[in-house]
Amino acid sequence: MKLKLDENIGTRGQRLLTEAGHDVSTVLEQALSGAPDDELFHICADEGRALITLDHDFAQTLRYPPEQSAGLVVLELPKRAGPEALLNRVRELIAALEQRPLNRELWIIEPGRIRIHQRDSG
Predict the structure, then answer these.
(1) Which segments constitute the DUF5615 domain (predicted)?
(2) Given this model, what pLDDT does residue 119 score?
(3) In angstroms, rounded to a whole number, what is the distance separating the alpha carbons of residues 69 and 79?
(4) What pLDDT, in 10s, does the model give residues 38-73?
């Protein structure tokens, strides 16, 4: 799957996803650090890449409709979480992607569960 990691994910998360067989680019590699959320959303959509982020703004489905993107993943971390908590969310994402594709949906990955916002069928 084609993915783009927001600047808050890090190289270890990138390595895990790449080793799992995903095509991963990053906001930092493309010099998009600090880009407005709207711009990042549209760039990912144009590239056909699902965005993986810690930014809860992307969970606002009216502002960032997942069906107008390749998909959005918001990783939830507990307060004062360390790097291992982030890597655990990435591992949960990898396991989920082995079960089903992220197909223009919003996934919110919390410790031990994934909430999926599916587009309306009507």
Answers:
(1) 1-111
(2) 66
(3) 29
(4) 999 999 999 999 999 999 999 999 999 999 999 999
How much is the pTM?
Answer: 0.93
Strand ranges, E, within the chain: 2-5, 23-26, 50-53, 72-75, 106-110, 113-117
Per the DSSP assignment, residues forming a β-bridge with 115 are: 108
Query: Is the distance from CB of 3 to CB of 23 less than 8 angstroms?
Result: yes
Q: How far apart are CA 20 and CA 41, in angstroms?
A: 24
Domains in the chain: boundaries: 2-117
Instruction: Give the C-alpha separation, 36 to 33, whole Å.
Output: 9
Beta bridge partners, 25, equal: 4
83: confidence class by pLDDT, cuts 50, 70, 90: confident
* 105, 119 Cβ separation under 8 angstroms: yes
The percent of residues in the chain predicted with pLDDT above 90, rounded, is: 83
Question: Which CATH number applies to 2-117?
Answer: 3.40.50
- Strands, sheet with 72-75, edge to edge from the N-terminal-most edge strand: 23-26, 2-5, 50-53, 72-75, 106-110, 113-117
